[in-house]
């Protein structure tokens, strides 16, 4: 039965005209108007349903044998993205840097870091990627620069125009020792110890919410905001398709003018396990998620949109990084006053909220929470890992790889893949002696460093089973290659009859179908172990994901899966599943093994 809306009928008024057998009868007066185009005819912009692949350049592919990934290496492997079906890629920072935080401490925002190559190498990468139909995004780091940057050197020297480029403050007197100086506030760095560092040159403290070598820009200075726009324009003019914007929650700090002329202390958390120099000792009330930072993001979106109008071509985008509570995260999309922000803020809920102990209900709730809070008309996004967190198979279980990729790729909106997830790469072991991550080195010691280290998720990509997993011909790589590369590598998975990579390829091909790009969805838990995701759109085949996230088998009643009409056909399944593509599912009950995921194709929803 077709709805009146589907038939192009607009209801004008409904009038009760009589009572028959105690029931009111109704007459409907309606007019006909042109029917809106069905959803399948509405074109999506390139980014609204794309697969976005994150490259960590230092670990992707080394072209010159020095053990460090580079731009020529990335260019040499762009066909991998075509084979996988990826639409766009973003690279962690490739700009000139002392590499204290491996590129997130930028000394020159207009130059390529020498270990990664030259500007010509970048131009060649960009041109080749575009020839292959792959969009290229850069990682933009506006919160801070390197203390080796010209900006900081000039600011420290009080050079005209740069005096307030960074957050500077006088020392506080020590009431117990007149010859001693104290930091301006009790703020704690993300990498431990005071967020303030003394400058002998300027005789003041500067703020660094991350490493000492990463001083924070002062976004209350219009000149800083102008410079950020200038940087973005430089790279847009070169042809990049947009930016992933880093560490936004820390971009603004409390204004001392609102606190008697000094920076206020953050309140204490009261958690006894933390000492004053440790992250967690205070609550970052004055250093994170300040409402003013969103105005800066809205200004960037205004700039990007105006650039688009002026230059034409395909849409340029900004995607924002912000580890914040759900309400503050949603403000990156925009606000109720009509200000428009990032095209989307990255969704870290699968990373922060879920683990190997999560139930099927936890998974369903996590998905629904994001979509419930997301503004109307906005585009969602999903990811299970990135360069700052343990890899998904190491956080969950290794038999969940295909299920996690299935969920990520079958949900509406944008799917983000961190390099290696398409082949199920796990954390590599990095000893204390091999550790290079500044966070691990400064927050931990030889016994605790793995609690903080980001190195395990950054080990080199596994191309094949040759020396160094095919990543480099050098004698040594910047991080050790994970020992499991002979079994987990791309070449092997291309050859294997069933593999994580082949599951990934099938899922991306499936994303091209209208039910996935334009359809509705349902997600429900059938038990603590298994949930289902249904994607459906009238006249198109219904796609159903069944995923047992537990460490034990589970038998489910298929009649409880809404919109699923049996028989159904298996499209793809976990590599450890006994069911394969083409199998028919028509029984009342179905048993899923631990970690097993099955994607079904069924008749269109009537």
What general form does the structure show? Answer: globular
Distance between the termini: 8 Å
CATH architecture of the domain at 144-216 and 254-287: Alpha-Beta Complex
> Class of the domain at 144-216 and 254-287, according to the CATH hierarchy?
Alpha Beta
Helix content: 10-25%
- Major beta sheet, strand line-up: 15-14-13-7-4-3-17-16
Structural class: alpha/beta
What characterizes the major β-sheet?
8 strands, parallel
**What's the alpha carbon Rg, rounded to whole Å?**
27 Å
Instruction: Could you tell me the CATH topology label of the domain at 144-216 and 254-287.
Output: Oligo-1,6-glucosidase, domain 2
Oligomer: single chain
Tally the beta strands. 25
CATH H-tier superfamily of the domain at 144-216 and 254-287: Oligo-1,6-glucosidase, Domain 2
Helix segment tally: 15
Strand percent estimate: 15-25%
Q: Mean pLDDT, nearest integer?
A: 93
Which consecutive residue ranges, at least 5 long each, have pLDDT under 50? 1-35
Structural write-up:
The protein is built from 15 helices and 25 strands. The protein is an alpha/beta fold. Among the domains are: 28 residues, no CATH class; 107 residues, Oligo-1,6-glucosidase, domain 2 (Alpha-Beta Complex), CATH 3.90.400.10. The strands form seven sheets. The chain has an eight-stranded parallel β-sheet with strand order 15-14-13-7-4-3-17-16. α11 runs parallel beside α14. The N terminus is likely disordered.
Topology, please?
Layout: E1 9-20, E2 23-32, E3 51-55, H1 71-76, H2 78-84, E4 88-91, E5 95-96, E6 108-112, H3 119-131, E7 135-140, H4 150-156, E8 168-169, E9 172-174, E10 177-182, E11 196-199, E12 204-207, H5 222-238, E13 242-245, H6 292-311, E14 317-320, H7 326-330, E15 344-345, H8 349-352, H9 360-373, E16 381-383, H10 392-395, H11 401-410, E17 414-418, H12 438-443, H13 490-495, H14 500-511, H15 514-517, E18 520-525, E19 530-537, E20 540-548, E21 554-557, E22 568-573, E23 584-585, E24 589-592, E25 597-602
Parallel strand pairs: 3-4, 3-17, 4-7, 7-13, 13-14, 14-15, 16-17
Antiparallel strand pairs: 1-2, 5-6, 8-12, 9-10, 11-12, 18-19, 19-20, 20-25, 21-24, 22-23, 22-25
